[in-house]
Amino acid sequence: MTRDALFDFARKRWGIEPDSPFADYPEAAVLRHQDTGKWFAIVMPVKAEKFGLPIQERNAELDVVNLKCQPPLVTLLLEKEGVFPAYHMNRRHWVSILLGGAFPEEEILELLELSFRLTEKGRKGRKAAAG
Question: Domains along the chain?
Answer without folding.
Answer: 3-51+60-118 (3.90.1150.30)
